[in-house]
Structure prediction request, 575 residues.
Amino acid sequence: MKTIKLSFILLSFVLSWTLTSCSDFLTEEPKSQYTAQNYFINGPSLKAGVVGAYQATIDLFVVNTNTPLFLPLLGTDEMGFYFSTANSTNVRNVVDKYAYTSTEGCIQELWARYYKVIERCNVVIDFAPEISNITDHDRNLCLAEAKFLRAWSYFQLVQFFGDVPKITSRTTSFNYTIGRSPLNEIYSLIIEDLKYASTEGYLSAEVKDGHANYWAAKTLLGKVYLTMASAKKSGKVAGYSYIAEPVDTLYQWAYNELEDVMQESDRDLMPVYGDLFRIENKNKNTESIWEIQFSPIEPYGTQWSKEMGLISSGYGGTVGGWRYNAWAGQCQLKGLPSFRAYYAERDPTMKYDQRKRWNLMDSLVTFDKNTGKPVKCQHIIGTAGVSASSSLFDNGNSNLFNKTSITKYRWGNSWKEEMPFIYSNCPNNIIALRYADVLLMFAEADMALNNGVVTSRGLAAVNQVVQRARGLKADNVTPLTEAETPGFNDYTAETLTFDQLMKERSRELCFEFWRRHDLIRTGTVEAYTAIRNLDTNTNSIKIYFDPEKNYLLPVPQYEIDNSRNKAGMYQNPNY
Prediction:
């Protein structure tokens, strides 16, 4: 099978007529005489349909009108949106402040774009049994990939909305008679799809090219079980109480799937944390389990990673400056000063945890206004509005917040380096599933099954992550030891509390589109975002999370208004 990256170029010209959408706002006009019925006739066409489903996932991470990109990122304890006017209608501000309503465009787009992926998967799943001139291996492979992507999409939808419509067959027109299915039924479909995808011999056990693989299916299944268990246990999200399986059973199933990935896959942590995120290592490193693909070939890149970056000033116009600089970005999204404190808790001197050095920078790049070239990089303490006596952890200082950099997805080794592609077409892949997450999820399940106290196996998993965070000695081969990083110690059964495990997830996985889901499923949004509201005068940081309604997004009003099943297409509470 050709790689997704290359297939995107060809499929952009044909997929508009091979696949129809599940609702009229997604319907695409036919551009030839082909239809799904006369296109899906053999193995190559079915494989093209699978690639079409993958292609639809990139729409979830592009930055354009009503982008849904910000929904899993903002409003957390890691990241915020700075704007001088607290009532700004910028989509980033609305999402960050939980000020959205059921008519918010980015919520409508989130719903629509995931259902677009689902519909393309349904086409493949429906047509696969009807094709005769295809090997059983290729048929099962196409079905497994489509079911993996359908499970991924429904898993995202159910975490955002709770009950959602369950559509499992291709539809050429959506008559809006389908209501929302109970959350537990959606999870049953997700599990069924992932069990099929994780059938031995269907998906490749080799991790490559962005295609779903056996270990991605196992990892996602483990995450699904962990989400079900923790959300049912917390009791904060409506619908999870109807899941039939006991919490401990779900945690045990999560433990088993994740243990299998740890013991049997060829996945391992990259020796150097930052190497995982370098563009040259995408699709060919030991830690990634599944990556959503982007390319420097227009229009298959995206601006998502340039929403973050090293804060810049003085860039000149639309050419040069941060748009071509390796580290600097548009910087609409800021790392919260209090998030730095998570690193300081474990590494008081802030000298040893290499993740902080990669994820957050304390410097400001200045560009020449005439040439667009970077001319200096200076520490933010002592810059305008941030006095020499300021603390990097001061959440009440809006000037500091405005200069708080996120540099996780940098391109080069130097703030002076330039990149060969425009800022809106960055080729960073979304690292959707990776091995460090497996280790941390395994430890969480382990703790839950042992009354909140980690066992030696769970402890060993977490400490693998900590050890990697210390970095390497001068030879760039030998890991630094605990003794060589005073204060930055391994965890013990006594020091690894649930709170520290949650913060370890944040330190390791920050800005990777999981934090909101983690806080929602564990019922801890209020606890971990409370610091954002300590200074009532700092409107650029304060948020307005309402636990009575914001654990779920509102169902898009468009869907409710157009539904002919008014009883079945109901709104979430308090919207």
Remarks:
- Residues 1-32 have pLDDT under 50 and may be disordered.
- The chain has 19 helices and nine strands.
- Residues 304-425 form one domain.
- The radius of gyration is 23 Å.
